[in-house]
TrEMBL record, chain A:
It comes from Natrialba taiwanensis DSM 12281. Keywords: Cell membrane, Membrane, Transmembrane, Transmembrane helix, Transport. This is Multiple resistance and pH regulation protein F. It is a multi-pass membrane protein. The keyword Translocase does not apply. It is found in: Cell membrane. InterPro entries: MrpF/PhaF-like. Its main location: membrane. GO terms for molecular function: sodium:proton antiporter activity. The chain crosses the membrane at residues 12-31, 40-59, 65-88. GO terms for cellular component: plasma membrane.
Automatic annotation (TrEMBL), chain B:
One of its GO terms (molecular function) is sodium:proton antiporter activity. The keyword RNA-binding does not apply. This is Monovalent cation/proton antiporter subunit MnhG/PhaG. NCBIfam families: CPA3_mnhG_phaG, PRK12674.1-2. It comes from Natrialba asiatica (strain ATCC 700177 / DSM 12278 / JCM 9576 / FERM P-10747 / NBRC 102637 / 172P1). Residues 108-128 have a biased composition (Acidic residues). The chain crosses the membrane at residues 6-29, 41-58, 64-85. PANTHER family: ANTIPORTER SUBUNIT MNHG2-RELATED. The keyword Transmembrane helix applies. InterPro entries: PhaG_MnhG_YufB. Keywords: Membrane, Transmembrane, Transmembrane helix.
Length: 95, 128
């Protein structure tokens, strides 16, 4: 990671900014989503985007720890989605 | 030099697919369509960025972690999308106009366990 050409640094930084913007756009669907499953889908999309952000951050700083962080984020995102899907089935009635 | 070019290409592909997934999430009309948008391209985009991590960190322990991450994502995101689709259908989110669930009678069977496939199969074929 020592001899990083400037263009790689620039690309990783731009990618980080772009994916963060995408997360904000997904946030719009979380707020706007007419039904609860819409919000669950949007939050799942945000979770996957954050996994991508963690890997990009690993690329930017050159530390391998953040790849592991992204794997843990993927696991937690999946468990959260399954839990909420189960809750929506049992707990809530869509009026 | 080749390595960073490859990393840049993978990152560009990854961000492109993430953008496609997010646009699909915002634009598509129904929760079921949106699920296609968020489960397929978003996973592909994140897998491409994981590959960029693999190329950048080499096949050492970090590279292996990113490969495991790719496999994990390919296994779990479709499962999560399926769970959401079922919960959406169970809680009464309507389909688009002409779509119907293949075996109608599974809605009433509350328990996940006993899905009488044989009985529902001939019933759905009779009224199809």
């Amino acid at each position: 990671m020592s001899d990083d050409p400037a263009v790689l640094e620039w690309t990783v930084r731009t990618a980080l900014i772009l994916v963060s913007g995408l997360c904000l756009l997904c946030g719009y669907r979380v707020v706007q989503g007419p039904t609860t499953p819409d919000r669950v889908v949007a939050l799942d999309a945000i979770a996957t985007n954050v996994v991508a952000i963690a890997v990009l951050f690993a690329l930017q700083t050159g530390r391998g720890l953040f790849i592991t962080v992204s794997l843990v984020l993927a696991i937690i995102g999946f468990i959260a989605t399954v839990a909420v899907a189960k809750f929506v089935t049992e707990g809530e009635i869509i009026e | 030099m080749i390595r960073s070019a490859l990393i840049i290409a993978l990152i560009v592909v990854g961000v492109f697919f993430l953008t496609v997934g997010t646009i699909g999430l915002l634009r598509l009309p129904n929760v079921y369509n949106r699920m296609h948008a968020t489960s397929k391209p978003t996973t592909l985009g994140t897998a491409a960025i994981f590959l960029a991590g693999f190329v950048s960190f080499g096949p050492g322990n970090e590279g292996l972690t990113s490969l495991i991450g790719i496999a994990f994502l390919f296994l779990t995101v479709p499962t999560g999308a399926h769970m959401i689709a079922r919960s959406a259908h169970r809680s009464g989110v309507p389909f688009e106009d002409s779509v119907v669930w293949p075996d109608k009678s599974t809605d009433e069977s509350e328990g996940e366990g006993e899905l009488e496939q044989s009985e529902t199969a001939d019933e759905s074929s009779s009224d199809a």
